[in-house]
């Protein structure tokens, strides 16, 4: 499965796998794809360094990349000064904090232990955190830097290009994609409505060719709704130069969700069991629908706060829900493809299914077109 | 573009075109596809008869079909007796009627002339109307009967099968599709989130293969987001035996929207200019987003009524908005593919683009798979 982009990056298959887990990223690259480590959960640069060291030791020389989250708009004081996490915390209304406490109390969610840090942090949303991640990452031979929110700042694009690192950015509309192109990025990830995490309203079937045409000749990766070889063939038929898969790896054997209850929920969920909600970060992000997302989306709730306030507001609560596996509230960002994630298999097994399914889908389309298959 | 289903129906290309316009339906069939006439706008059986006569005279012996709308739930009195249109009208609250009057007044929408009938009727939603349509249609050599809401009643399926007419039903989920299969229908139209008209939450990229697997070996047509040969190739790669296109024909030369202002709005609209709203029928249906849909979807509005009440409530208003081309309120059901409908061309020109684009997409996928293209 070779496109110009996969050749440029030296990978066997134009399959890009986004994952927060180093073991998954390395396994995707070893399987012949391109593993991309999501950096948003790293607060401390040394943790990211440790995990990049691990990938280096396990990737067998294959290429891989890093995904950071730099919001297009900085959170700053009216003076234009960057704000600290504490400054931002202070902007959260007490009524919202009370709603979090009340909701957790209603479900009897225990407190974290004294001094126990919230394991689930989203401070990576803040530009200064993302920049410290990049200071670490540029010491490693990453081949791709992706930004999940808006175009990365010009100096970051320049630093990446100096090091021969391709820059990718996610887009949910053709207009958004053209902005990335103007910002000098190299690859657009067209993220459809059905995708997990932050996503827009336009579904992949419409979005992918629209973005392909809008930014031509930039290569486009299709994201959203892809978890089988048939869907990969579809995305490539739509004009993508590769696919960007995130959700599918969450139930692989190498993934480390720290919660068997969450894994069970993912395995059981159907394609209709997700919701596009602002509950997690303040921007619409597709995730498992739970009583937690229902509470935030209810008309009689306080409503969500803008990014990054919502993420800071709920960080500890989400950690508690995950630690104590409070089933009705337990969720995670995931796309509609969750309906296909029905067993735990190795990354290699999943990957082999993708490439085999792709070949079968190409056979099928060739037959329909009246051309001889293989 | 040949699948088992296209061979069974004797068409050159597995492209099914749904349209309310006889001239478009006939042109699709003449171009090598399968035209399906939407019957919902016909209140009087003799109007449907006139238009089927016209199709017969212009289809050059090619096969075509009919699409009706029979709600799964009948509107009936507690006694189980079928209700007349007048009975149903009486169920509409006065507050909702006032909201319609106020909204129309706010935009200065003129009244219809004395005695002028509302041109835009949705009484076809009611089962007794759909049955009278079928009494007409079964006298014609239709090859396909599609139902847009739920499975058709068992006696209708039996009548169709006696006449060698294949029965299709639209589905927005695998569960819904399996119900159709149990009801004995022959073809499932998997209608994705991005589609125009009544549609569910699951996007085509995820829905199509899910439905294909759920109802195997029944043939599935992919609907939603398809308006180019690339998208047809994608849908077939996903496992569909054909595609079902509705929106794309609205801006063809043969379409008769009775409103140049509406045509202009469709040509100008982008993929982000639609909304899935209950404003038109009471069930979520994708349509152009307008100040009319915004008014119904606003949190301080009265909310929409269930089908068929909402459709009866707004029928005259929609006629007035369309007749007087009141721009901010003027809309129509259409899918996200509206972003690709940017010029008025003949059905034949549109169709030829589809087949040419399909061949190019197959070339592309073959090259990526390392197989020689044509």
Automatic annotation (TrEMBL), chains A, B:
PANTHER family named in the record: 2-NITROPROPANE DIOXYGENASE, MONOOXYGENASE RV1533-RELATED
GO MF term (any one): nitronate monooxygenase activity
Keywords of this entry: Dioxygenase, Flavoprotein, FMN, Oxidoreductase
Organism, as annotated: Streptomyces phaeofaciens
UniProt-listed SUPFAM superfamilies: Inosine monophosphate dehydrogenase (IMPDH)
Gene3D superfamilies xref list: Aldolase class I
Coiled-coil intervals, chain numbering: none
Protein name: 2-nitropropane dioxygenase
Keyword Protein transport tagged: no
Domain of life: Bacteria
Keyword Protein biosynthesis on entry: no
Pfam families: NMO
